[in-house]
Each structure stands twice: as structure tokens, then as C-alpha cells.
Write a structure and sequence with these properties.
- 4 copies of one chain form a homotetramer.
- Chain A is of the alpha/beta class and 257 residues long.
- Helix content of chain A is 38%, strand content 18%.
- Chain A contains 8 helices and 10 strands.
- A 7-stranded parallel barrel of chain A has the order 1-2-3-4-5-6-9, surrounded by 5 helices. In chain A, strands 7-8 form a two-stranded antiparallel sheet.
- The longest helix of chain A has 21 residues.
- Chains in contact: A-B, A-C, A-D, B-C, B-D, C-D.
- At the B-D interface, loops of B face loops of D.
Chain lengths: 257, 257, 257, 257
């Protein structure tokens, strides 16, 4: 019997304030297998979080926390010199708050994926990665931590004994060193659905992706990120999903194994 | 063998931002048996919360959550027309966040006492009281909810099956209807340590307190609140504690029974 | 020579955080004559404010401030028991901040229209209306204050000597007493462009509008609010504008007379 | 006739939320000649700002703005990668808001001194210094900008044509390169009143101060910062003031010349 290769698709959701636009996230959540929900520090509030938990639970999507630096004005995208012990407290606070909302709905948080500048810092800064890993583990030892494939954070968290999911981006351009090209750069975001899907398949099947300067990067990823906040995001997601399935991949959350 | 009557003393702590004044709360926490820790909505941040959890744990004081309306500018003291379903989400978020920090320290949240305007609204507004009670119960069915003695909130939470602690205030003046006299009113805050202690003893022993207009109010209370944010607060607390002990009362958290 | 009757169309804009979606407000700003820009308390931040000021200036739209209660989580739509002296400080702070950004661009704030729950409270609560009027006047004595047509706020501000613009809503249902029907109510928002335009023309020409229960309300309004945050908002705005012009109305800001 | 040498003493004030502790700043404001008032981004709110403006005006102290990164949780002390164009908008917003409150009281803002991490970044980062200088100048061309004596910011702002006041710290230790020793370091804060006063006199008279490693630093300063947030701050301030006067210095704000 042939083994089914599995891949996870994840999206960052609940990134809005107040509850005046329910349903925004539904289209993207219909396509992915893990949802990382904003916890109020860069966006989101308890009511939006609870609505998003309910939506994810109803759609059978695994629930992850999406903690951030406390930076609503900058949407968590700005580097901040937060000390590791404060990162620890901030991240543990955010995961715990979301988990409490999830448990009240009979669900639970199964993974943690830091957001924006915190996510990027973890890729390079071992102290920061260790602080986030410790917060994740101290919340619950069976939580998964999602980090950039090929980054220092992967090694740090793995060596601390956490379950770690390596993430790659099929709709973002990579620099030669494995970092994401800054959003402000031209061609940093890949928009064409067919191209994104082709990149996703190559990542899943061959563990390879082209960099922005034309070299090939090897990346072992167990989850692919799909951005939900752009026009046409659901179309891109559907195209990626179909392409992966056509290639024989099963879709499922890393955290449900 | 004579039964020992027990009473709890509680204080609201961690009501500050950033961690530049560690130790502020230590003096008051040495005198009380339950600490209600601010959860970031009216004051406090994750680092202050974690420091306060550690301090309470070290001093053997029971840990409670002190959730609020989201109102940092007004210190949570302003009435806000937050819908019950949003109160539910806000309170559950706050308790869960603090509990996560406490569990990482090997402790846990054992009680919930809403802050300021939310606490006052619960005393009158059954829908609000029910929303807070539901959030408390959905976080954990063995949590205690602290409400004003003699208020609607006591009946609402009791009828929902929660463990409820009735609270009285020996350093605040009461109106004839059992409400607290507004802080802005003259004589609303009782400052003289001996007078506060005498009121505490009478409350604990006889279940009675004088109102601001000279009548007697009957109040069955299992916890007395001591404010820690005034000059001389620790002295007041020590005087109250000694007076209760001299009267034969044991001191211990309602939540540790 | 025939006199040209003039009416102002206004929209509330800049109601978002971070600057990732520039251009959102351009469609609606092309149709109106006064823009009320959020000042950070319910939404908006300095960068969004500055971008919106530039956009309004470029399109020749008069710039107004849109101050609110400090309530980002609730989008300023929740009643808050903020004391009049704090309302005064909050509103003066917000107008002044926006005016500083406008002046740096060679423009200036010419009107003030409070947002959401603060706007509604002014309609009933004279102390609140006076606090906002005082803040407006203390910022600059030639600022216009925009209030609900037919409300107490109109009388209060007028008697204090301010220049007051009365506002009516052609896309929101009115109750018999002149209040807006709550958004949560069925039919509270009128969406059909032709119907909105017909209501606008009747308001401008006859000073009349039908209430939600079928009676006729008399309202003298010098500005009509068009909501920009709904799908099809620009289409509605264009239809209203054309209908008013077809009826012989000139369009121009009350503040530019 | 002998020329009177003049020096300014400045303090950072209004660094608290809600208005429950009026009077906190009065002791230090009685000793200084310029007050830099927090503008809400690291601390302070409109009501505290207004109270502090009134207090400064009553005591005859010049009013300055104390803008910061948007970082209440970290008290503005954490480096943040805020883009220069956003720094510009944030700073202009804050100065303008405070100036509006001051003008309503018949006063006005005469200087701008950035806070914490933003102040430190200006000392090294010319783009950042230029953004702050531009915001200051665009608010009003006669505003003074206060920067660290001997820093890049001094040169940047001077070359842009601003009136610049160089600031030195008599109660903080200096590194050999002219930077302040980080607060976390041992001996970073000088507490002994006599020692602080001796350093102040030497700075004012000779333009010299000892660094933490025992060398001598030359600094031309026109204002000395006195911290008001430590126990005994007013005593230190009074001692410094007396020592300077005994040495023949006049005390007065650089901005009142």
C-alpha cells in the first residue's frame, strides 16, 4: 500500500478589531488545515478571537495561536527590542488567553506561530527563539511551534524538545539566504495563482524553491502559509490546494498526527 | 472543640504598567490571604502579571484574576455599555491569560473578582453578572467568583452553580442600599486604621456595618477587601489583621477550603 | 439671478489602523465635500491620519476632525461614562493633533464631528454637548461643530456662539423622536442607492424624512452623511450627488462659506 | 556689568495614566525651569496632560512636549524599528495635541524633547533625527528641539535651521563615547544629592563630566535633566538648584530667551 504524503496549509486569521465584519476569514479557512489566530497584540480582540475559534472549529480547521509584539499601530511588523523575559511573558499570555477561549468551545490550541517581526527575529536570534519556545512549552508540552523552515529557530526549538513544524511560503519571494524578501521590495509577493501553486507543489514534492535572484533553495517544510488578506486570496488557496491534491498529497494539520 | 471562624483578606494588585517599580505590592501582600491581579485591561501587562504571580506564590497568597472593561485611560472605573457577549469574551480572555502565567509557575488562579465599573455593574445588572459568571465557569468549574455581598450578582452566580465569595469593604463607606459611596463623595474612603479595623471586626463577627447616613447594614461576607494603593495601606492592613486575630478569627483564603 | 441652494455631503474616513491599505477612502472622498478623519481614539493612527489629510487636500475636500471616546476595541460605538472634563481634554487633544498634521500640509481642520457613542450622547446630554463645544471653540473659535439635526446639541452649541452644522442621515432609518434607529435593528441601514438619493433630495429640498414607523420628521440639515464603509458606498454616494445636482443643488462644504 | 550665565533645569513629567494622583509632579516642577510633558504614547493621557500643563503654567515653568514611540507596555524605553515617515507623523501628532491643550490654557509648547528609545536613536541615527526635527519645525518654526549634547542629532537639527538645546544628565552615568550607561548597569543612576549637584556645577561651569570608566568627557549643555520619578527626586533637584545658584548661575528656560 502506497504511503500518503501529507502537507498542511495554514493561514493567519482574526487580524481585525471589533466584530463588524464577521465572515471575512471564512473563505480562506475553507481551504486550509491550520488557522493561526491573532491574540490582540498586533490585531484582534477577545470577541474576534472567539468568533474565529468558532469558525475554525465549525470548519474542522486546527487552531493555532498567532502571538506578536505589542504593536497595534504597526501591525506587529516592526522590530522591537523586547527583552527575552518579556517576550516569554507576552507570548505565554497570548497563547493562554486564546486557549481559554478555545477550551470554552470544546476545542484547544494545538500550535503556536509567532507573527511578523517576532517571527522574523526568531529566525536569527537564538535567545528570542528560546524565549518563545519556552513560553510555548510552559503553556503545554504538547503544543507545536511553527517556525521558518531552515532557520535557527528550528534548531533551537527542536533541541529544547518541542514539536516543531517548519513553514515555507509559496506566495512570498525568498532571498538567497532563506529569509523572506521584505514586503516593500518589488516582486516580494507572488500573486499569480498558477505560479503560487507550482511553487507549492515543488516545495512539497522536492523541498525546493527558487530565490528572488534565480538560485534554488532547499527547504524541508511541513506547512505552507497562505495569506488571506489579499484580494483573490481564496482563489489562490483553492488553486494551491487542488494542485497539491492532484500531485497525490493529502491535506491535514501537522498538529493532528 | 471550638470551631475556628475564618475570614479572607484580599487586595487588588499588579495595577501598574511596565516593570519599573518591582516590590510595590509586597507590603500589602504580606498582610492578605488572596491577591486579585490586574490582567492588562485596566492596568497591568504580562510581565507585571508574571512578577505578581511569583510574589503571591512566594508569600503563599491565593491567586485571583482581576478582569476589567478595556479602559486603561480610565483605570476601568468608567461605566461602559459593553454587550454581555463581549463581556463574556473579555473576561474569559483575561482569566485564561493569568491562569496560563500562574500554571507556568506551578500555581493556578483560584478566584475571579471583576474590577471597578464592571464589578459595580454586576451588582445591579443580572445579564452582566451572568456573563461574568459564565466566563468564570467556562474557564474552570472550580473557580470562585467574588462579588459584592448582598448584591444581585451573588444570587445570579449562586443559582448558576458557581462557588461564590461575598465581599465587603471595611475601608469604604456604604450607602443605605448596600452600594459603595462613590469615591468622589466626602468620607467615601475610610483612612483611620483603628476605625477600619473596628469595622472589619464588626463585619466579620456580627455581619454588620454602619452606612454613610448612620443606619446599620447587614452583610454576610467571606472576604474583606483592603486597598493597597493608598499611603499607609500596609499599616491599615496590619491593624485589621491583628484586630481580627485578637478577636479569634483565623485568616485564610475562601478558595483554599 | 436665482440663488443657488447649497448642501454639503460628508463622510467619515481614515477609520483603519496601520497603513497597509492606502486608497481605501479615495472612492468615497471623490463624491463628498467634507471629510471627517478619525483621530486615533476609535480608529486611525498618525500615519493614516496624515495620508488621509493629504488625500482630502488633493481632492479639494474640507477637512474635519472625527474625535471619539477612547475605545478601539468597540470602535467608539459603546456608551462610556466619561466625565465632561475628560471629554473636553480628549476632544481637544484629538482636534489639535489632526490640525497639526493638516497645517504641516498647508491645510487646516475646519470642522469637528464627534463619532459614534459620543455623537449620540451629545444629542441628549447637554453637559456632554457643552464639553465638546467648549473643546472645539478652545481649539479655534472659527471651527464648525457638526451635530445631529434637531438634537439638544444643536441648541447648546449655538447658544455658546459656535458655528454649528446640522447633520442628517439619508442612509439610516430615523425613529419618531429624531434619533437614529440602532444599527442592530432591521432596516436600520438603507442600502438601495435610488432610495437613499430620494431621501437626500427630500431632506435637502423639503427638510423632511420618513421615520421607520411611517411618520414624517422635519429636519433642517446643512450636511448629509454618507457612509463609506459598506460595499457599494461609492455608488450610493454618486447617485445621491447626481440626484441633488439634478434638483439644482450646489455641492460645497458648510465650512467654506 | 558682569554677564549672568544661565542654565536650564528640565524634568520629564505627566508620565502616568488616569488622574488619580494629582500633585505627583508638583515637587519636581517647583525646582525646574522647563517641563517635558508625556503625550500619551509611552505614558500620559489628555486629562493628565491638561492637569500638568496647568500645573506648569501656574508655577511659571516652560512647557515642552515629550513625544515617544507608541509603546505603553515598555514605557517607550524599547528600540522599535519605526520608519522615519511614521516617526514624523507620530511626533507631529504628539506635539500638536499637547500644544492644543496648552493654548487652551493661554500657554504654548516651546520645546520638544523625545523620550527614551526614540531620544537615544536620534543620537546615532541621522534619518531618525531628521524626521523628529522636521516634525518639530513643521509644528512651529520657533520650537526648540532638545537633544543629547554631543550627539549626531545636535548637528542634524542645527543644520536644518532649528533652535537646538543640548542636554546633559547629571544624575546618569556616561559611557566614554558620550552615550548614557544603560539603566540596567550598576551605578548607571547617580543618587547622592551632593554628588549630582557637584556634577551639575562642573557641567555648567566647565563643560565637563566624568565617565563611568573615569575619563573626562567634554559636553556643552544648555539644559540639565533632573529625573522626577525616583524617591528623593525633589531633594536632589533642590540641591542641584542651590549649588548652581551658589556658583552664580541664573536659572531659566533656554526657550524663554
Amino acid at each position: 500500500m502506497a504511503e500518503v504524503r501529507c502537507i498542511d496549509l495554514n493561514a493567519d486569521v482574526g487580524e481585525r478589531f471589533d466584530n463588524w465584519r464577521p465572515g471575512d476569514d471564512e473563505a480562506i479557512l475553507r481551504e486550509v488545515t491550520t488557522a493561526h489566530i491573532a491574540c490582540g497584540f498586533h490585531s484582534g480582540d477577545p470577541t474576534v478571537m472567539l468568533e474565529t475559534v468558532r469558525l475554525a472549529a465549525r470548519l474542522g480547521v486546527a487552531i493555532g495561536a498567532h502571538p506578536s509584539y505589542p504593536d497595534r499601530d504597526g501591525f506587529g511588523r516592526r522590530a522591537m527590542d523586547v527583552a527575552p523575559e518579556r517576550i516569554y511573558a507576552d507570548v505565554l499570555f497570548q497563547i493562554s488567553a486564546l486557549d481559554g477561549l478555545a477550551r470554552a468551545e470544546g476545542a484547544r490550541v494545538t500550535s503556536v506561530k509567532p507573527h511578523g517581526a517576532l517571527y522574523n527575529r526568531m529566525a536569527e536570534d537564538e535567545e528570542c527563539a528560546a524565549a518563545v519556545a519556552r513560553a510555548t512549552r510552559d503553556c503545554s508540552s504538547d503544543l507545536w511551534l511553527v517556525v521558518r523552515a531552515g532557520s535557527r529557530a528550528f534548531d533551537v526549538a527542536t533541541s529544547m524538545g518541542l514539536r516543531v513544524a517548519a513553514e515555507a511560503f509559496c506566495d512570498r519571494a525568498y532571498a538567497r539566504d532563506g529569509a523572506l524578501a521584505p514586503r516593500a521590495e518589488r516582486d516580494a509577493v507572488v500573486g499569480d495563482p498558477a505560479l503560487v501553486a507550482a511553487r507549492a507543489v515543488r516545495l512539497a514534492r522536492d523541498g525546493e524553491i527558487d530565490t528572488i535572484d534565480g538560485t534554488t533553495l532547499r527547504l524541508a517544510a511541513s506547512t505552507l502559509c497562505l495569506h488571506g488578506d489579499t484580494p483573490g486570496a481564496a482563489t489562490v488557496a483553492r488553486t494551491v490546494r487542488s494542485a497539491l491534491q492532484a500531485e497525490g498529497f493529502g491535506l491535514g494539520s501537522f498538529s493532528s498526527v
